[in-house]
Structures are given as C-alpha cells and as structure tokens.
Design a protein that fits this description.
The protein is mainly α. It has helices at residues 2-11, 14-22, 48-79, 82-102. The chain is elongated, with a radius of gyration of 21 Å.
Length: 104
C-alpha cells in the first residue's frame, strides 16, 4: 500500500502539493469567549481571583497569541517561505506515512 501511495504522490507536482498543503481558509479573528458562570462559582475550591486571572489573563493571552500566529502564518504563506513549505510538506509526508504504517 505504501508503494501505491508513493506513486500517487510522485505523480503530483511538488508545487501543486505544496499549494494544497498550504491552503488554509481565512478565518475571523479569535476572541476571548465569555464564561457562563461567575468567577466565584467554583469557590471554595478555586477562588474567584484565580478564575478571574486565569480567564482574563491566561486564556486571553492564548487567544491573542493564536491570532498573532495565524497572522504570521498568513504572511509567510503569501511570501511562499521555503521553511514553511518544507515543514508543512514534512508534516504531510510523515502523517501519511504514519497513517499507512499504523493504520490510524
């Protein structure tokens, strides 16, 4: 089965494969979701202060960093950065190999 998959991939041009792997639909910017409960709802196990810090600082930082990462990705994709293509193609190849190898 690996040989059949290899022949199929070999028949596709590298540029077309890279374009297919690097194509990501545009998305709206991610936003911090609100909580359906009050920060103090988990007291006395988790304090309202900890919940407020976790949500408004930590969770917000993850959302912000995800938006930054997606922006940088879009810029690299537009430039056709070789490193980006190399790593995504490597990821695609490895994923195909592991799927064929382990049947997952």
């Amino acid at each position: 089965m690996l040989c059949r998959a290899t022949k199929t991939v070999s028949a596709v041009s590298r540029r077309a494969l890279a374009a297919a792997v690097l194509t990501v639909p545009t998305r709206a910017e991610h936003t911090l979701p609100g909580l359906d409960y009050d920060y103090g709802a988990l007291e006395p196990h988790i304090s309202a202060e900890i919940m407020q810090i976790h949500h408004s600082k930590h969770h917000a930082t993850y959302v912000n960093n995800l938006n930054i990462a997606e922006e940088k990705y879009a810029e690299a994709q537009a430039k056709g950065t070789a490193r980006l293509q190399f790593n995504f193609c490597g990821l695609a190849n490895t994923s195909v190999f592991q799927t064929l190898q382990y049947g997952t």
